[in-house]
Amino acid sequence: MDHGEVAGTAASGNNSAIDAANAQTGEVRSVFGCIGIRLRLVALIAVAILPLTLLMVNDIRSDFRNEIASTQARVQAAAELAASRHTRSFLEARIFLEALKNAPATLLAGGEECSATLVRFRENNPQFNSIGVVDRNETLVCHSSLSTPRRYANSVVFGRVASSADDAFVVGDFIFGRATGRPTLSMAMAAGEAGSSGMVFVGYDLENLLLSAEPGGLETGTVVSMLDRRSGRFITGDGNGGVRLTDPMPDHPLTVAIGNGRRGVTEVAGLDGVDRIYGYAPLAVTEAAGFVITVGVARTQALAHVYDDSLRAMATVLGVTLLTCLATWWLGAWTHLRPLGKLGEMAKRLGGGDLDARVAIDSWQAPEFRSLARKLNRMAERLDESRRAEQASAERDAIYKLLADNTVDVVARLDTVGMLTFVSPAALDVLGHRPEDLVGSAAEAISVVEDHGIVESLIANLQSGEAMSDIRFRARRPKGSEVWIEVSARPLEGGGGVLVMRDITRRKIIEEELKEANARLEILAFNDALTGLTNRGAFDERFEAEFGRAVREKTDLGLILFDIDRFKNYNDTYGHPAGDECLRLVADVLKQCLRRPGDVGARYGGEEFIAILPNTSAEGVLDRAESIRQAIRSMGLRHTGSEFGIVTASLGVATIPAGAGYRNATDMLKAVDRALYGAKSAGRDAVRAASDDPSPAASHCV
């Protein structure tokens, strides 16, 4: 076969393929050719209405998202409010226990008087299931509901109290009280020193505690629960106006979602298996750090009205579409084809980005078409407004970026959940991080771990719409160094906020140096420069306060006044530098003899020293004075100008037993001065005590 024959065969094959394609196209056209004008108009109507339908679907999705966000905010706020109420309840229980533990020991020892008192307390405090006193042998000696002593059943709480500090506030586990049979949370404090004198306790009514914190304004069926993260147990409403206590549930989705107990929101299956939107918040008091309040709303209930609105909206769209199609079917081409053509053209132009397009329908045309035209025009106007707003926003963003790029302060933007969405270039100089490394991370990542709470509080205030300034925390740079940051924050419309951060490390150093200088000045103002003891002015203020407290509280108070015997001769013999050294040595002796934190020693003037001994009996004050006298003599400091050959001291003592004995502090000072004079008159190197008799003869020598 030659080349001509091959070419002819190939051309024939190509022509056959083209003919087949043309035949298929003809068949398709034939099918469309069978469709009447009314069906074509219906199809055109459907195409015109489709963009509106898509917009409505998008609005419905937005409604769902907004409702979920609103519900999350409401349950979070409700959880915060409930946690605040519970925190107040815990604090009220602590205040009650502190008052009870300080009751007279005879009352706390048990007996009918103790039981009657606790019954009255219980009647006046209905939030408590029970009130009781347990002695150090773990015996329940007094109870608001039990009349006979018995062994205290809650050994866990007793053990925690025994191993805690004296003023520790101990919170037990969720239990059902044996005496009351009601769900109870035991709270206790040591009576006296922890582990030696037993404890006082209250059993807090968990049903009262939980139901009193139910928030208002939420959907019916809202569930309030409390989690004890130590045991993994929940106390929650039982749906019948009561409460129930669960078994430990450490692996329950809600327990896992709460995690470390920080506040937040989550969507998990609840304790009853119903999917809920939960807000949770921890109790703020330190002793209740293991307790978390949860407030949950069923997801279906929260979104019920959105479902209803969506169904109505979709039904509306379908109804309009159906009516339009029926009208199109019956009215014919003349009354529909022209407006539909215009509407189709309008939709086409909008789809092509021509937001200036508008459509006009003759007034005699059907109202559905005019309404659809108005909707399309309104949609075009909204889209045009959105485009203009985006252009204006872009221009503003360009200006803000120019400012942010050229300021030495760090400018950052947060979204509604506290994530960084923008960080200015100054972050590299101030924080040591590139802006792109910080974007997408939580705001807490800027600060050191110890200051995360400050940043979390700042974000919470921003989310509540509050502007803040002069917030300070520490930030860690990549190489480990720390810088002090001062932050101003402003909330933004629609959520989130703007932070302006400034490096104040140098200012902080100057402030610390100024603080240290002020502290040194304060020491100089209240201390004697030579001996390091309290000076006369500070002593006078302290003595007035201690005297007043002893009188009010009817407690003992002792006062010791002494001076160095023949000190003028010592100065004349050895010189003033040696005299100053002698004063310092005597001051050291006084410091060593005042062993208790409440004792105060002071230089009263020249060679005179004075000491305040709160809560000290007359015998104790005399013993302390004699110890001071012997300690000074034991120094063996040579003094040729004294008849004793060494440095000695004469001491006067005055006391007020049970807050009585002198009219005022001045009278007590006069009495101790007379006692000192008596010790010197008796030959020096002696201790003399004054009675409440103001005469010079009313003293006796020890």
Describe this entry's structure for a reader.
It is a single chain. Helices cover 49% and strands 20% of the residues. Strand 2 (139-143) and strand 3 form a beta hairpin. It folds into four domains: 1-34; 68-302, Beta-Lactamase (2-Layer Sandwich), CATH 3.30.450; 407-509, PAS domain (Beta-Lactamase); 527-701, Reverse transcriptase/Diguanylate cyclase domain (Alpha-Beta Plaits, 2-Layer Sandwich). With 702 residues, it is α+β, with helices and mostly antiparallel strands. The protein is elongated.
Describe how the helices and strands are arranged.
Elements: H1 3-33, H2 37-101, H3 105-108, H4 112-124, E1 128-134, E2 139-143, E3 150-151, H5 155-162, E4 170-176, E5 183-190, E6 199-205, H6 206-211, E7 223-228, E8 233-237, E9 243-245, H7 253-258, E10 264-269, E11 275-282, E12 291-298, H8 299-302, H9 304-331, H10 333-351, H11 367-405, E13 410-414, E14 420-423, H12 427-430, H13 435-438, H14 452-463, E15 468-476, E16 482-491, E17 497-503, H15 505-526, H16 536-553, E18 557-564, H17 567-574, H18 576-593, E19 600-605, E20 608-614, H19 618-634, E21 649-656, H20 665-681, E22 687-690, E23 699-701
Parallel strand pairs: 21-22
Antiparallel strand pairs: 1-2, 1-6, 2-3, 4-5, 5-6, 7-8, 7-12, 8-9, 10-11, 11-12, 13-14, 13-17, 15-16, 16-17, 18-20, 18-21, 19-20, 22-23
Helix pairs in contact: 2-9, 2-10, 10-11, 17-18, 18-19
